[in-house]
Amino acid sequence: MHIFRETNTFTFNATIDGSNASINYIFVSKGFRNRNIARQLVNDFINKAKMLGVKSIKLDAYFETLGFWQKWFTINPKAQVIDNHRQDYHDGILYL
Fold first, then answer.
1. CB 27 within 8 A of CB 42
2. Per-domain residue ranges for the chain?
3. Long-range contacts of 87-92 (CB under 8 A, 24+ apart)
4. Is 2-95 a CATH 3.40.630.30 domain?
5. How many helices (DSSP H) and strands (DSSP E) are in the chain?
6. What is this structure's pTM?
7. Which of 23, 59, 66, 77 is least enclosed by beta carbons within 10 angstroms?
8. CB under 8 A, 24+ apart: contacts of 64-69
9. Helix ranges restricted to H, 1-96
């Protein structure tokens, strides 16, 4: 199940596949930040995933957003490496 919600305020993209899920992308427009919109989107997704029997949610967390994601997810402190190049993304997982 692919979940995609987009408004002038935010974009949220996630996937639920059986007992696994992932948050692929979340963006809140600059003028609407610090209003708990992203937090509510993530909480709603987590609750929906729990209702559907999901066991874990994965994400690639951009380095500058780690503080936000650490409220829910365990973040790998080592950045991803692709083709021997260090990325600005870290793997995160939440077990439900």
1. no
2. 2-95
3. 88/62, 88/63, 88/64, 89/60, 89/61, 89/62, 89/63, 90/60, 90/61, 90/63, 90/66, 91/58, 91/59, 91/60, 91/61, 92/58, 92/59, 92/60, 92/61
4. yes
5. 2, 8
6. 0.88
7. 77
8. 64/88, 66/90, 68/38
9. 37-51, 66-69
Longest CA–CA span in the chain (Å) reads 39
- The mean pLDDT value of the chain amounts to 93
Structure tokens at 39: 């937090």
- Is 45:94 a contact under the CB 8 Å cutoff? no
> pLDDT class for 51, splitting at 50, 70, 90?
very high
- Cβ-based neighbours of 5, under 8 Å, separated by 6 or more: 11, 12, 41
